[in-house]
Design a protein that fits this description.
single chain, mainly alpha, 188 residues, globular
């Protein structure tokens, strides 16, 4: 159950104010089809989480316990460091000839591939014996961070103190990752 909760909270935090939210805002505003955009979010988040969970389940048995902990520490540090970079608005995919569902699903899948939340799911799935729970938690976290943007549009981004959330979350994740890394290397 720890894998699910850590992935859920980490992915929500990693997506707050990130380029994925900005892309979803642009697509939701352009298409004005909330159901199709939300369905695209669910498909993209689920696909990225499945890839990460399967990769973690494959990599995990090849590593020793300390190496798995170090791998997870690096994924937490990567996510935390990413929160300090301001998100730039991604390409709104205006030239794509596909509809709202397919544009959202493909755009978010491509944008999220190799992003901090996906790497966090990979790290958790590698470290724990519950890669499926890591994938479920990560997918739910990404969905929970993106769906309110579709429903509330720019109002939610204007109401949240994005910089404070990202910097505080980044500092906490860097500290947690550093603690895990020091523990994995035997220095703590």
């Amino acid at each position: 159950m720890d894998a699910l909760l850590i992935a859920l909270l980490g992915c929500v935090l990693g997506e707050i104010g990130d380029k994925s939210q900005l892309l979803v805002l642009a697509l939701a505003t352009r298409y004005d089809r909330n159901g199709a955009v939300i369905a695209g979010i669910v498909v993209a988040a689920t696909a990225n989480a499945i890839i990460s969970a399967f990769a973690g389940a494959w990599i995990g048995p090849m590593l020793g316990a300390d190496a798995r902990l170090l791998f997870m520490a690096l994924s937490v540090i990567f996510l935390g460091a990413g929160l300090f970079w301001p998100a730039s608005a991604p390409d709104p995919l205006s030239g794509w000839p596909t509809g709202s569902f397919l544009t959202t699903a493909l755009g978010l899948f491509i944008l999220g591939f190799g992003d901090g939340p996906q790497f966090l799911i990979l790290g958790i799935a590698t470290r724990t014996a519950d890669p499926m729970l890591a994938g479920i938690g990560g997918a739910l976290g990404v969905i929970a961070a993106l769906v309110p943007v579709v429903l509330l549009r720019a109002r939610i981004l204007a109401a949240l103190p994005l910089r404070a959330i990202r910097w505080t979350g980044g500092a906490l994740l860097l500290l947690a990752g550093a603690g895990m890394a020091l523990s994995a290397t035997g220095l703590l």
